[in-house]
Write a structure and sequence with these properties.
Blueprint: H1 3-15, H2 18-27, H3 39-55, E1 60-65, E2 72-78, E3 86-92, E4 113-115, E5 118-120, H4 128-145, E6 151-157, H5 167-173, E7 182-185, E8 189-190, E9 197-199, E10 201-202, E11 204-213, E12 219-220, H6 221-224, H7 231-240, H8 261-267, H9 292-297, E13 301-309, E14 318-319, E15 322-331, H10 340-350, E16 357-366, E17 369-370, H11 377-389, E18 394-396, H12 405-411, E19 415-418, E20 422-423, E21 434-436, H13 437-454
Parallel strand pairs: 3-6, 3-7, 7-19, 8-20, 9-18
Antiparallel strand pairs: 1-2, 2-6, 4-5, 5-21, 10-17, 11-15, 11-16, 12-14, 13-15
Helix pairs in contact: 1-4, 1-13, 2-4, 4-13, 11-13
């Protein structure tokens, strides 16, 4: 049997409803890692669902735990011959909270529902649908060839939505077990629903809080207005000093010296399109002189995620004693993460905002990583995707969002190749999470072709 047979087989499996049934069963697990009551469900998803699926394809499986015994991982491997290329896959089975009351009528988080050419359900985009596509593509190659033709390893975690606790620990302790020639994984969105994408790393992420604690309690705004400081006003001005009125970052240490030519060249063919109902790029926002793709993948961005002063639910005529904001910096390779908060402290002090407290949060930190776009595995992968899809894939050096790619790129020293199977309008982390049916079917064919090519004997030299 041939490459085309493998792609046709997985397409038939999708059309028959077999893939939909597999995915529906996985979505039915309420694997909310942010909910402490779901801890047993997280383990059950690994051991009762994914492990039998891998074992049915001839993989040997074991459950790994971090040093603290709080995080569980499923490790699966199928080793065919030592001299063959070894590929590590990755995915996560945990999801954000279901938010059931906020879903549209007739939709719910733990049930796969088809409507208007889309499949809905929590985790279908992030990440159950994506690792399920890759697993079925592996099965398609085994069905057509009788073997993979390469050594496959896979790691599934259940804490990505809470910052991947224990992932770095496990990968550090199990370096030999996880040794491979490259990481090939799927997470995050395409930049356009109709254009396949390959990305090589991700922007880093640092969350932090800014706050002002002016005094123990509130005071009447009529008696004290104009006499005592208002923390809400002060913090608003402090936040406004970080960027221009159009979002251009004003702290030099937070942005790179420039965008490498190889990165700009790769981004030249990347279009950003969230599809019907999604947001539209606002050309006047962010760093001037850059394309939308360069702003998202090659530059840093600062966001205020939440701001609170006084009692928003029940305002009273009092000057509030406190103001607080949760902030986030998405940064790229070339920005030193250790300099981000010290630079912010100096910036605030210079502008008269010494009263603003700066505190790093416990979660929300990923290091920025990026494989060189000129690495020989990059054109090889792009060629495979183009052959399977009949489309020119986009190349994104760094995904705009953040992933634990630094664990694989730095701790394990792997080339990192990501082929996402979602799109920007998927409502990831929100009610009504979904994927288009045609995108999933195309993704199955892309991955079946890619896995076939990995075992065809023409890969770049290790």
């Amino acid at each position: 049997m041939s490459r085309d047979d493998a792609i046709a087989w997985v397409g038939d499996r999708f059309d028959s409803g077999e893939f939909k049934a597999i995915l529906a069963e996985r979505i039915a697990y309420p694997t909310e890692s942010q909910n402490p009551e779901r801890r047993d469900v997280l383990t059950d998803y690994l051991c009762s669902n994914l492990r039998p699926a891998f074992e049915s394809m001839g993989f040997e499986c074991r459950v790994l735990a971090d040093s603290a015994g709080k995080a569980s991982f499923l490790y699966a491997q199928r080793m065919e011959r030592d001299e063959l290329p070894t590929v590590l896959g990755y995915g996560h089975g945990d999801v954000v909270r279901g938010m059931a009351p906020a879903w549209s009528p007739g939709l719910e988080p733990w049930k796969l529902v088809e409507r208007d050419g889309r499949w809905y359900g929590r985790g279908i985009a992030d990440n159950k649908g994506q690792h399920s596509i890759n697993m079925e593509a592996l099965r398609a190659v085994l069905n057509a060839r009788g073997r993979l033709g390469f050594n496959a390893k896979y790691l599934i975690e259940m804490g990505e939505e809470t910052g991947s606790p224990g992932l770095a620990d496990v990968c550090g302790r199990e370096r030999n077990l996880l040794r491979a020639d490259l990481l090939l994984a799927s997470d995050g969105p395409r930049m356009s629903e109709n254009q396949p994408l390959l990305f090589l790393g991700s922007r880093g992420c640092l969350n932090f809080d800014l706050s002002i604690d002016a005094r123990p309690g509130g005071h009447h705004s009529g008696n004290w207005g104009g006499l005592i400081s208002n923390p809400g006003i002060q913090l608003a001005h402090a936040l406004a000093s970080i960027t221009s009125s159009t979002g251009q970052i004003l702290i030099p240490e937070w942005v790179p010296d420039g965008i490498p030519a190889s990165v700009s060249a790769a981004l030249s063919a990347c279009e950003i399109d969230a599809g019907t109902g999604g947001p539209r790029v606002e050309p006047g926002w962010g760093e001037s002189g850059l394309t939308p793709a360069e702003k998202m993948s090659g530059w840093s961005s600062f966001e205020v995620l939440a701001f609170e002063t006084g009692n928003p639910a029940m305002p009273v005529n009092a000057i509030p004693p406190r103001a607080w904001a949760r902030c986030q910096l998405r940064y790229v390779v070339g920005v030193d993460p250790e300099r981000i908060l010290p630079a912010l402290r100096r910036h605030l002090d210079r502008r008269g905002f010494a009263m603003v407290n700066v505190e790093r949060t416990r979660d929300g930190f990923f290091r920025a990583t990026r494989l060189n776009p000129e690495d020989p595995w990059v054109p090889w992968t792009l060629s495979s995707i183009a052959t399977s899809s009949g489309k020119r894939p986009a190349l994104l050096p760094s995904q705009g969002g953040s992933l634990p790619n630094d664990v694989f790129a730095e701790s394990l020293g792997l080339r990192t190749l990501w082929v996402p199977h979602s799109y920007l309008g998927c409502s990831q982390h929100a009610p009504d999470e979904h994927l288009p049916v045609r995108l999933m079917r195309e993704a199955l064919g892309i991955m079946a072709g890619l896995y076939w090519d990995l075992g065809a004997g023409n890969t770049p030299a290790p």
